[in-house]
Fold:
Amino acid sequence: MNPDTNESLARFVERYTSGQIPWDDALPPPEVQELVANLSPARALDLGCGYGRTSIYLARHGWRVDGVDFVPQAIEGAQKRADAASVADAAQFFVGSVADLDFLPGLYDLAIDVGCMHSLSEQLLIAYRDGLLRLLRPGALYLLFAHLRDEATDEEPYRWISKTFLRDLFADFTLEKSELGVTVVNDSSWRSGWFWYRR
Structure:
């Protein structure tokens, strides 16, 4: 594990330990719910699954889902929640990096990332993208939510990702739609966007 990953893991372990996880809502965002309502159930990959809200939602709607997160506490919690929701047979959870998915055989019809990849280094982002190219079927959907860096001022406190880099990173995908906005958490706000890609 590289130093960047170690530092990020320590930060997220601390957040889960302290309970500072504002993304832990009961349901996934409306964008995910709308997508699921318009697709036939198949196989899905939940990247940076946290406590499994998206995975469990998909499983309740007939999908078979693999969720991946590098925080052991998150995966332990996701498994407990899947058991409690009686979807443990349809939702599997793995401790691992979203930039090192060699342990997954694929192929998936859908991948969803709600706020994970934007904190990866450039090197890890390339590995992440290559994993998606291997794991997604041709024609599969990839739904991404990411915090965006302002390319002019670059004032964001974390890595985030620029729209230009995002465009170049996913040049082998077709961007079908995007919606840009602002994410507000407590007293902080960041530019952000939803991106609907086709493999």
